[in-house]
Amino acid sequence: MATPKFLGSRMAELRRKRNMTQAQLASKIKKSTSTVAMWEIGKRDPDSQMIIKLSSIFDVSTDYLLGRTNDPDDGLKYSYWENGSSNEKFSKIENYRKIERFARKVSSEDLEKAVKILDAAFEHAFNGDDDDDDDDDI
């Protein structure tokens, strides 16, 4: 298992990347700010369930949090391959993760525009919008 200081430094790094204060993280996980601070400086360790919860909040693998890998997605990829998932299923999961990362980076206004574009594309693709019947004759 990773040293407490390594886990703590990863937590602090991920929290800062998301412009989150210790108090905000503490509130989100229903712990005190001092508990989060103690984890980050390596004085205490979160339990295994909390590590799983933190990995979900930060959208990284538990292996990344624990210092077993430098790839934030590495443990996630391994667990899907381990369970015998197909390439297609794994590819879909990776695409969802890309969409989630995109959504975190753009403004709310741009995200709303993207949703409208996707809505129109899905409407056209899946609801039989036949305005383009002439294209079938080509």
TrEMBL record:
Pfam families to which the protein is assigned, alphabetical: HTH_3
Residue span(s) of domain HTH cro/C1-type: 11-65
SUPFAM superfamilies, alphabetized: lambda repressor-like DNA-binding domains (SSF47413)
Species of provenance: Paenibacillus larvae subsp. larvae
Record bears the keyword Ribosomal protein: no
The protein's name: HTH-type transcriptional regulator ImmR
Alphabetical keyword list: DNA-binding
Gene transcribed to yield this protein: immR_1
GO molecular function: DNA binding
Domain of life: Bacteria
DNA-binding found in the keyword field: yes
